[in-house]
Specification:
Elements (H helix, E strand, L loop, with lengths): L1 E6 L7 H9 L7 E7 L7 H9 L5 E5 L9 H12 L4 E5 L9 H10 L4 E5 L2 E3 L6 H24 L3 E2 L6 E5 H6 L12 H11 L3 E4 L4 E3 L6
Parallel strand pairs: 1-2, 1-4, 2-3, 5-9, 6-10
Antiparallel strand pairs: 4-8, 5-8, 7-9
Helix pairs in contact: 1-2
């Protein structure tokens, strides 16, 4: 069984389609999806509620409030979601990705079939032609640098990496407990990479899933 926690802040490019894709998963086991926002003033909240209302998914909205000092907004939302999560495995998903219906199934299968795996994460691919110079730079960074570097490193290490690129990642509860909880990343600017380093430090593995997930970003400055 799987809980997916999706921190949301602001209206992403293609937000309605991203939400529809998230809720249209073909995950074969028990699944709940938690959309976590700061408060009722969140501009994406009407889109989230409309998407949930028109789907058959087990999904709900949580309010996490403003983050405390030293904690990023994303980490604060993740911690709030984890407190409410009911299921055995815990995934975290960024709001600007558009996963295909099988992405969660492949991600979880990667985790469960790998010995000593504590976490698994999906590679990402910026999709669509750039509209601005900022879009082009973002695409070059992810598609031309981070993605190939991660794939090369994983291929040389049996699919394992010493960090996580956390646009879509899944953990066992045992792993989260072993690393001292999500709270162990308080004070860190890049929560996901730090959590991956903690997984590695406690003797577990971060494994790269074989299916890339599209990131939707347009109109960047």
């Amino acid at each position: 069984s799987l809980t997916v926690i999706r921190p949301v802040r602001g209206v992403d490019a293609g937000a309605a389609d991203n939400l529809a894709a998230a809720l249209a998963t073909r995950y074969p086991g028990p699944l709940e999806q938690l959309f976590v926002v700061d408060d009722e003033t969140e501009p994406a909240l009407p889109l989230i509620r409309a998407a949930i209302a028109t789907s058959c998914a087990d999904a709900r909205v949580l309010l996490c409030g403003a983050p405390p000092a030293g904690v990023t907004g994303k980490l604060n939302a993740m911690v709030t979601g984890l407190r409410e999560a009911r299921h055995q495995l815990i995934a975290f998903a960024d709001s600007d990705i558009r996963p295909d219906p099988d992405a969660l199934t492949i991600l979880v299968a990667t985790l469960l079939r790998t010995a000593d795996a504590g976490a698994a994460f999906a590679p990402v691919l910026v999709q669509g032609p750039p509209e601005t110079v900022g879009d082009a730079g973002y695409g070059l960074m992810l598609n031309g640098l981070y993605g190939p570097a991660a794939a090369t490193c994983a291929a040389a290490n049996g699919g394992e990496l010493p960090f996580i690129m956390g646009q879509l990642m899944v953990f066992t509860r045992r792993t989260l407990s072993a690393i001292g909880g999500l709270e162990s990343a308080a004070g860190q600017l890049v929560d996901d990479m730090y959590l991956g380093a903690r997984v590695k430090a406690v003797g577990l593995r971060n494994v790269l899933a074989p299916r890339a997930v599209p990131v939707i970003q347009h109109g960047l400055s």
